[in-house]
Amino acid sequence: MASTTAFVKGHRRTSSDVEFKEKMRLDAKTAMNKELMKILNTAMGNKEQIQQDFEGFEQLFHRYLTETGPSVDWDKIKLLPDEAVKNYQDLGLPGPDDIKSLLDKLVVVKLNGGLGTSMGCKGPKSVISVRNELTFLDLNVQQIETLNRKYKADVPLVLMNSFNTDEDTEKILKKYNQVGVNIFTFTQSRYPRINRESLLPISTNFGPESAEGWYPPGHGDIYASFYNSGLLKEFIKQGKKYMFVSNIDNLGATVDLNILNFLVGAECGQAPEFLMEVTDKTRADIKGGTLVEYEGKLRLLEIAQVPKDYVDEFKSVSKFKIFNTNNLWINLEAVKRVYEERTLHMEIIVNPKTLDNGLNVIQLETAVGAAIKSFDGARGINVPRSRFLPVKTTSDLLIIMSNLYSLKAGSLEMSPKRSFPSVPLSKLGSHFTKVKDFLRRFASIPDILELDHLTVSGDVTFGKNVSLKGTVIIIANHGDRIDIPSGAILENKIVSGNLRILDH
């Protein structure tokens, strides 16, 4: 399915004929409501749940119709005061006797709504094997199980599924019955895709033939869905205090006892209700969202919100020095409060897509981190880069599967043999996009302990025990093929043309 870049609502200009625009908005809102009622009548399942989803969608749609002007005024953006971002190095260690009581206040929530389609896999992305035939989900469960066993704690693992991943995930969870982790799931909302021209849903019912007409509305939906699932109130009743939220494919997002101690430890005074882990931006991260001060509050600024004239400024590593890892620590009572008082606010991300049949649609989405401005005392915390290890592509998978990391109790640790802590930049071409093609092209994963940068393009295969060092660029032109022989050592090399190694 093709898609184009998402952008944040605020792109429309107000017409001089305000009254005409207002009538059109009213008509669009009324027409949308009528269509949703028709669709609701076709539902066979839980109508109450669907109605809840539709109410949330209509609120978002109403905002989409009425909010005008840019979502940020660039002149109002201020760089952060020093106290807005705490340095991880300044955190105190918890006492050994305090760790169990700290962990008993924690809920770990993993965002598990994504499919593995971008890497050529079917089903939830979390079931892709990443190390030793263990999947993202296996590693996350193993991390929590180790924590609970070591400290005799009871940290629950909560998965926010989407309607795309829920059924498959529930089946997979049965294999963890003997594991010492209480696993809970809830499903985020299901919203209708909107025809870009008519501003009406493209689906007319919930049948399988209408599957393309629905989408999960981004991870900002966590607040409403978690609340509506009943789990939020249940955890508060149990005495849980904070939830640690992160993407399930970020293998660096492990429970950090120092951060937890800072939040719930007795000496910390007025703890922030919302803590966003940020890390230093490199040239590989120039599109990542950053924290700024805006109208006296901490705010997440995404590239999609930036006016075109200021995009280069936004990408500057010297001006905006940090970016959001999407590892978030949020007070559960505060989530309940902002949701019930309706003071939760997140910018609308308008995500335009072109479906396989050529139809242009829009999806209205929100991002979990954008709610930072709705919470009291919100802060950033500048964490080591090791806490950000996302696997979005097979280029990332190469790094994770290599000898750069060892696996210990579900957590990845960088090899002490790496002489500097930065991760190599890896760019594999389209021949490597799908996981099965990626695995077929490596007889074994190369040694990359001394690699800085790897670019591979075209029809390239790697033999066993290949070693890559420094900057390596391998380009097979169209129609050519390059086979890197077993045992080859490539250091600061550019390889191009045609290279076939024949077995004798």
How would you describe what is shown here?
There is one protein chain. Strands 4-20-14-17-13-5-8-9 form an eight-stranded mixed sheet, with helices on both faces. Strands 1, 2, 11, 18 and 19 form a five-stranded antiparallel sheet that branches. Strands 23-24-26-28 form a four-stranded parallel sheet, covered by helices on one side. It is α/β, with parallel strands linked by helices. A hairpin with a 2-residue loop joins strand 21 and strand 22 (411-414). It contains twelve helices and 28 strands. The chain has helices spanning 18-41, 47-66, 99-103, 136-151, 166-173, 222-229, 231-237, 257-264, 311-315, 332-340, 394-401, 435-440; strands spanning 2-3, 7-8, 77-78, 85-87, 106-112, 129-131, 134-135, 157-161, 183-187, 191-192, 194-195, 214-215, 242-247, 274-280, 290-294, 297-301, 322-331, 349-354, 360-365, 379-382, 405-408, 411-414, 425-428, 447-457, 459-462, 467-475, 481-484, 489-496.
Return residue spans where pLDDT drops below 50 for at least 5 consecutive residues.
Answer: none
Structural class: alpha/beta
Strand content: 25-35%
Strand order of the largest sheet: 4-20-14-17-13-5-8-9
**Sheet having the most strands:** 8 strands, mixed
The CATH homologous superfamily of the largest domain corresponds to Spore Coat Polysaccharide Biosynthesis Protein SpsA, Chain A
CATH topology group of the largest domain: Spore Coat Polysaccharide Biosynthesis Protein SpsA, Chain A
CATH architecture of the largest domain: Alpha-Beta Complex
- The general outline is globular
Span of the ends, CA to CA: 44 Å
Helix content: 10-25%
Mean pLDDT figure: 90
Number of strands: 28
The rounded Rg comes to 24 Å
What count of structural domains? 3
Report the top-level CATH class of the largest domain.
Answer: Alpha Beta
Put simply, the count of helices is 12
